[in-house]
Amino acid sequence: MVRYLEQVEMDTVLSLSKRRGFMFQSSDIYGGLNATWDYGPLGVELKRNVKETWWGSVVRERDDMVGLDAAILMHPRVWEVSGHVQNFADPLVECKVCHQRFRADDLEDASGCPACGGELTDPRTFNLMFKTFMGAVEDSASQVYMRPETAQGIFVNLANVLVASRRKLPFGIAQIGKAFRNEITPGNSTFRTREFEQMEIEYFVKPGTDEAHLDSWVEERFSWYVKHGIRKENLRLRRHGDDELAHYARDCYDIEYRFPWGWAELEGVANRTDYDLRSHGEASGHDLRYFDEEAKEHYYPYVIEPSGGVDRAALAFLLDAYEEEPDPSSAKGETRVVLRFHRKMAPIKASVLPLSRNEKLAPTARAIHELVRPHLATQYDDAQSIGRRYRRQDEIGTPFCVTVDFQTLEDRAVTVRDRDTMSQLRVPVADLVSILKDKLEHGW
Description:
By secondary structure, the protein is an alpha+beta fold. It has helices at residues 10-20, 41-60, 76-81, 84-87, 151-155, 158-165, 210-227, 275-284, 310-321, 362-372, 386-396, 408-411, 432-442; strands at residues 23-25, 37-39, 65-67, 89-94, 101-103, 124-127, 130-133, 143-146, 171-180, 195-205, 235-239, 251-259, 262-273, 290-292, 297-299, 302-309, 322-326, 335-339, 350-354, 378-380, 400-404, 413-418, 424-428.
């Protein structure tokens, strides 16, 4: 029987992740730094695949989207006008005995410390923005913020983008970039960290059409995760209550994933109304209204914002791909661990495996690897038995293994093995690249 997500412990996946090179604790040799993570050779490929697949879906495959890459450091007035200086805060409580700190809204029972049972202080607001200084003097005049979201870079550049791209409503601006939040209680691996990457869209629409566009984006973003490998039963939509909406939001939905510790936000889709554009327009003195040529009027567009975390998405794809099942090729009843990544998300697309390290096979196997490598993310693996190498590739989610055997020296053909079905196909070396590309696009 296959072991599905709800039976998988977080420690199991994190152990595999470290062993195979997906994620490492940052600064590990010095004891680590809390809630900071480094991506290893496979993890960085997975993360790049998440970003590239998202960018392809929301920018390159649409004619109503353009991209932007705004700076992390922005004028301090941006965050004052946007409301982040005043409103971007969480309620903080501290234990009077062990002095651990917690987000008050995360505690199921606020009557005592969850760690030691001690008395908690009254909640106080804690601003989540990191502060730093620009220039040679560290004083209030040189204080700037590490951006807590990428969205404001889009809003303050709207006029520039409109002039450069000549877009008409409805249209969107997409951005992938780093953001920073001084979280009170980070944790659960890369789910909640102080440094992370966001994939955000600000989609500008005519007021009055905003709710229809919100519904459309909610449906599209939910479907994106299902299309790219997340099981539908591990996803759900949750609409925000009036008491939890952000200061800029009129409506918001969370796409939640069933993580090992419970349901939690994977991506939010919010109706930000015209709050940001109106605030920045009035505060800066620059007219950020849109001129509607058909209606012959100026107005502030409303904004629909799908905003997801790259790190959370990569973690969800990793968790959802993990399966354990009896190994049908094992006479000892061993377990086969498989990461059933969608083909677009798999860090390695194909591995080239010589049947053995025999000196007659090695040159041909190396040449075939060199043939495939410019076209696909590949590995060359000749360590241990062929069976162990198949299992190693299954464990990192490689869709296809290409086996080079002694028959290859005679017929110039190789055996391609599918990760999920373990079925095999003999193909000519001359057609190998085109066949692999076809199967990566359309499946086995």
